[in-house]
Amino acid sequence: MNKTRLQQLGQLLNTSVVTKVLTEAEWVRQGGKKHPEAGQILQTPDKCVVVTRVQGSELECIDIDGTLSPLEAELLGWAVKQNSVRPSSGASDLERQARRLGEWIQQSVTAGEWRAEVPDRMELRNRLFDGMVPFLLLCEQLEDKEPSYGELEKTIRTFLADDTLLIPLREHEWLVLSSDGILTEADSDGDEMLGHEETKELLASLTEGLHELITSEWGGECHIAVGEPIVPSENAVRIVATLRETIFLGRKFHVGMQIHLPWLVHLERLLSGIPETVRSRFVEEMMGRPDLFTDSETVATLDAFFSMDCNVSETAKKLFIHRNTLLYRLDKIKHEAGLDVRSFNDAVLVRILLLLYKVTKRK
Amino acid sequence: MAGVRLESVYKKYPGSDKASVTDFNLDIQDKEFLVLVGPSGCGKSTTLRMIAGLEEISEGKLYIGDRVVNDVAPKDRDIAMVFQSYALYPHMNVYQNMAFGLKLRKFRKDEIDRRVREAARTLEIEHLLDRKPKALSGGQRQRVALGRAIVREPQVFLMDEPLSNLDAKLRTQMRANISKLMKRLETTCIYVTHDQTEAMTMGDRIVVMKDGFIQQAATPDVLYNHPINLFVAGFIGAPAMNFITGQLVEEGGAVRFRATGFNVEVTEGKAKVLRAKGYIGREIILGIRPEDLHEEPVFIEASPNTVVNATIEVAENLGHEQYLYLNGLGKDNVIARVDGRSGLRENQNIKLAIDMNKVHIFDKDTELNVFEN
């Protein structure tokens, strides 16, 4: 059940409604019938659990904080049963297998089992032993524009390669695994071995292409992170955790960016781990003018300056301004904050300050 | 082919109390080449992204043809987009890049081939069809991105700063190529740029935006010669229009403009309007384009009532023309554009006659052009 429907149900019942996963054994232990089906309801004195989907021995449920009248329970059970029939009847074997794998990955990430290997019981396991490029997609389209699994899978397969796997994780979130042969295809020189930097460059442009494809098909906000090739049978859980963290850091520190590369957020990761009090003290001590970054022009100028490796001419070009205008702005920052971003040491400090400011501002 | 209509369109981002685009009303004709221009942050790209379906429309209606498309996904809008960061697909060659959109929509192979080869011929990239993007120059990549859009044969082309990544020479060349191409394809095109030269040379009509509002929508000629307000007057034209704050006075049956270094007579036609609108005795802003200041003796002799004296602080010679930065006229430098062969030098005192038929007068409070409102 998606988030919107959960919220609607919560509003209708005027109570908190959340999803959870139970094993069949737990369900029976709590008083539920054996061999549960979607739509079955378990009422206890203070809450109500409804099975929304049965996946082998695992049950997807919604947990309602409160009790339902017999009529409410019957109606809700009926509605869930009707809803559960639709996707499973329309879903392909591949989708079902991908969903099962996605659920396992999700549970392993939640449990912190980053080194867990894909278990034998996963039907897709035998397709996860070769080198693959992992992409994590977080696409937040409006509900009525959201693509179905089938549509998205077909589009991505057409774009990347026929053997690409689309694995649903959480709501709006997918792991895409594509054969790493795509990198050799992208290399115009046709070299068998790609250098490390060259690989990263190709991964970034593949991600840009994928992003453009998805947004130009369905619109909405789509964040994509890409990792270097992995063997998914051993690293699927770890890479999902890493790419999730990359998107989280990218969205936190670089609002507006939608393509996130793990190798570009090292500093952000480090800063994110510093306790709030230490960060605040650093900002207070460093900032001559606390309102310096509230000026959007200054922030845009510094962002561009750092993204262009402190190259004045390139930054001016990127900002569509004259070189002298940029120099004037940088001098103004030097005058007001006492930090000259054209000197390496000050540039490091301002870059850190800017990143920290963005996080503080968003709080 | 189709026109595009925006009716009272607004864009508000969550958490922001100010709209990025406000009450945007525009009717773009079928086959029209419309340019959205303005400084960064004016809302031009946001407007284009709303038309593309990449951004939600917060309020108002968007029509493509006769259909309201507010809730239609980008892929179903029958549009094709070209952006500044033309993300070519690195693992596909040029042919595959151009064919991809059609392949996704399950076009027949022979139809895909026909369209790709035709577009490649138009863009003169037939010899590049087997190459991967990595092996292309900036200009070639840009043409492939255009080709990818052309093969779709959409109702509307949307382009967001497509030439920004190119060097100046290539940009000029591609500017002309895109104009020619759009004329040949006879398809509606909405083009976003920050560059007023691009806007003036390419657009059938230009929309100047500032702070999310349309300032003026008109043909290049009207925008240049009849700017509706101070912002448009200053934004369109390079070097920019000179603005001098001064007073209008009635003297000997004529209206004169007085400011530091100026005591010039306003033409009778303009004087009538100024009298009727009650501007005599009030402070106004006079706008003069650099080319409407003349140093030629014949002009000075013919217009004795509009002559001013100034000192040349800086003289920039571009060969065919010369920009003179003048002291002694108003508070700031006034720039005059004169013939490159005039031989004028820095620190020289000169006389200039103002073509008063071409001047603009702006209300100091509202900044509106008195003659255009």
From TrEMBL, chain A:
Pfam families: HTH_30
Annotated InterPro entries: CdaR-like_regulators (IPR051448), Homeodomain-like_sf (IPR009057), PucR_C-HTH_dom (IPR025736), PucR_C-HTH_sf (IPR042070)
Gene3D superfamilies the record matches: PucR C-terminal helix-turn-helix domain
Residue span(s) of domain PucR C-terminal helix-turn-helix: 299-355
PANTHER family registered for this protein in UniProt: CARBOHYDRATE DIACID REGULATOR
Protein name in UniProt: PucR family transcriptional regulator
From TrEMBL, chain B:
Domain ABC transporter residues, every copy: 4-236
Single GO MF descriptor: ATP binding
Protein's organism: Cohnella terricola
GO BP terms: carbohydrate transport
Record's GO cellular component terms: ATP-binding cassette (ABC) transporter complex, substrate-binding subunit-containing
Keywords, comma-separated and alphabetical: ATP-binding, Nucleotide-binding, Transport
Domain of life: Bacteria
A matching Pfam family: OB_MalK
Protein name: sn-glycerol-3-phosphate ABC transporter ATP-binding protein UgpC
Gene responsible for this protein: ugpC
